[in-house]
């Protein structure tokens, strides 16, 4: 709905990800970039932008961290919906939760290499009694052409 904060990466400005320009491992690109799949965003648009993890290095990990969200309550759970692409077994996408009182990131969702090259969609619900951040982590274990991790259209509900 219109009440969701949407991050479609068509412009660089995405208030939910304040450090985005510092996150050099997530690359904002489109299907025409010459960097391999995916060759379009989740709507099939070749010129529309999404984020993907560079596979130029042997092992690379990219973390995309949100701004701090307030605690959730029963009426306003934080729902995050996102489109994702994970090709080949050496690719992983994880979504983690970091509460401000903790140093560690708790893994709340993960997917590893799916051989079919297509965009999928998922929604996660977060219930937290304290302030928290959400981290989208893409991991590339081996350097091979034609493989990638990508995310697009991340939307956050009012409870976030």
Automatic annotation (TrEMBL):
<protein>
    <submittedName>
        <fullName>MALR1 protein</fullName>
    </submittedName>
</protein>
<feature type="domain" description="MAM">
    <location>
        <begin position="5"/>
        <end position="160"/>
    </location>
</feature>
<dbReference type="Pfam" id="PF00629">
    <property type="entry name" value="MAM"/>
</dbReference>
<dbReference type="InterPro" id="IPR013320">
    <property type="entry name" value="ConA-like_dom_sf"/>
</dbReference>
<dbReference type="InterPro" id="IPR000998">
    <property type="entry name" value="MAM_dom"/>
</dbReference>
<dbReference type="GO" id="GO:0016020">
    <property type="term" value="C:membrane"/>
</dbReference>
<dbReference type="InterPro" id="IPR051560">
    <property type="entry name" value="MAM_domain-containing"/>
</dbReference>
């Amino acid at each position: 709905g219109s009440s969701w904060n949407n991050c479609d990466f068509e412009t660089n400005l995405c208030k939910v990800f304040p450090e985005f320009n510092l996150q050099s491992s997530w690359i904002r690109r489109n299907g025409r970039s010459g960097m391999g799949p995916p060759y379009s965003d989740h709507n099939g648009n070749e010129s529309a932008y999404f984020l993907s993890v560079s596979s130029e290095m042997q092992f690379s990990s990219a973390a995309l961290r949100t701004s701090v969200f307030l605690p959730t309550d029963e009426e306003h759970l934080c729902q995050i919906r996102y489109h994702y692409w994970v090709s080949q077994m050496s690719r992983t996408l994880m979504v983690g939760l970091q509460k401000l009182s903790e140093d560690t990131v708790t893994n709340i969702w993960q997917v590893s290499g799916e051989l079919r090259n297509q965009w999928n969609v998922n929604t996660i619900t977060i219930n937290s009694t304290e302030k928290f951040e959400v981290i989208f982590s893409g991991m590339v274990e081996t350097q091979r052409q034609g493989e990638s991790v990508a995310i697009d259209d991340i939307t956050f509900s009012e409870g976030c």
